[in-house]
UniProtKB/TrEMBL annotation:
It comes from Scomber scombrus. It comes from the Eukaryota. SUPFAM superfamilies: alpha/beta-Hydrolases (SSF53474). Its EC number is 3.1.1.23. It is a single-pass type II membrane protein. This is acylglycerol lipase.
Length: 340
């Protein structure tokens, strides 16, 4: 009888032990989805072996994650897009070799990096801050491979033009900053915003779960089924920063920033790879032909059934193409080729 009671107690304890994390997950999902999202990113970073660090320079703090150490292959610095963060790259890092030295930094004012004033949020301002970061962590002790997507692609291209000796090669993913010949759905939104003197809601700054879903539809060709609770959690995570996002948005659509990449393309000397989703509704894929016309030696890869969020929609393909390009540059001493 005593043995039976012990067995019952064991099952009760075991059941209770399992029930606690399950109940915590369910409660987080329905009551605190934003907390669940933060835990998700934390867990994924740990699983992939990424460590979060801070770099301080003259009262300014950069937050970044990294994996690996500098080795035979060049280090990789990854710049995310507007209103995103360093964890944007987790999907791609998952498919890159663990021995590569990878650095993903929060762009100026984003996530854990210091938030200052509008001067830092223009494309040139962000370039200056990213260069400060590179010098602070001494990433430029030898040339590195630079990757940027969307706004980060605009910054990356201008960076390569301004600091050519620091870059051995680079990858631009659906970069902003190009006068693309064809208009997109987002261009139409932007025209409406300009006509309203920016009183309408900005599609890239959602304030409700419905607007968040619309943003995903705008940025992605692949249709992800996202539960309402998670959409609400994403809104909750972003909402405290919406005023900041509006400030950044106004800076990057200013004339001095809007076409900064195109104005600096002729100064880029590093081997260049361009990745673009064919169904991009934010920055039209015709921008790739503009880049190729100015830099005919660049390599262009257009991805089928893919929108603006290449990193989220085609992470494995993106990682494979970046790695192949880096290896090609080392094996050929910098020669590039163009493909489609």
């Amino acid at each position: 009888m005593a043995a039976d009671l012990d067995m019952v107690n064991l099952f009760i304890i075991a059941g209770g032990t399992l029930a606690i994390p399950i109940l915590a997950f369910v409660a987080s999902f329905f009551l605190w989805p934003s907390a669940l999202i933060r835990v998700y990113y934390w867990y994924w970073r740990r699983t992939l072996g990424l460590q979060v660090r801070y770099a301080d320079c003259g009262g300014y703090r950069f937050c970044y994650s990294y994996r690996g150490k500098p080795g035979m292959r060049p280090s990789i610095l990854m710049l995310h897009g507007f209103s995103a963060h360093k964890d944007t790259w987790l999907t791609v890092v998952k498919y890159l070799p663990k021995h590569l030295h990878i650095v993903c930094v929060d762009m100026p004012g984003h996530e854990g990096t210091t938030r200052t004033n509008s001067e830092d949020y223009s494309i040139q301002g962000q370039v200056r801050r990213i260069h400060q970061f590179v010098e602070t962590i001494r990433l430029n002790r030898k040339p590195f491979h630079l990757v940027g997507t969307s706004m980060g692609g605009n910054v990356a291209g201008v960076y390569a033009a301004c600091y050519p000796s620091e870059i051995c090669s680079m990858t631009l993913i659906c970069p902003d900053g190009i006068r693309h010949p064809s208009e997109t759905k987002f261009d139409n939104h932007l025209q409406d915003l300009e006509h309203s003197n920016y009183t309408l809601n900005i599609p890239l700054i959602p304030t409700t779960p419905e607007e968040m879903e619309d943003m995903f539809k705008l940025c992605s060709h692949v249709r992800f089924k996202i539960p309402q609770q998670i959409l609400q959690g994403l809104v909750d995570v972003r909402e405290p920063h919406n005023t900041f996002y509006q400030e950044v948005f106004m800076e990057i659509v200013e004339e001095s920033s809007r076409y900064a990449l195109q104005e600096h393309l002729h100064l880029i000397t590093a081997p260049l790879q361009v990745l673009w989703g064919k169904q991009d509704q934010v920055v039209d894929v015709s921008g790739a032909s503009v880049i190729a016309e100015i830099l005919p030696g660049c390599r262009v890869d257009l991805l089928e059934k893919c929108g603006h969020s290449v990193v989220m929609e085609r992470p494995c393909r993106t990682a494979k193409l970046i790695l192949e390009f880096i290896i090609l540059q080392q094996d050929t001493g910098g020669g590039t080729k163009k493909s489609s």
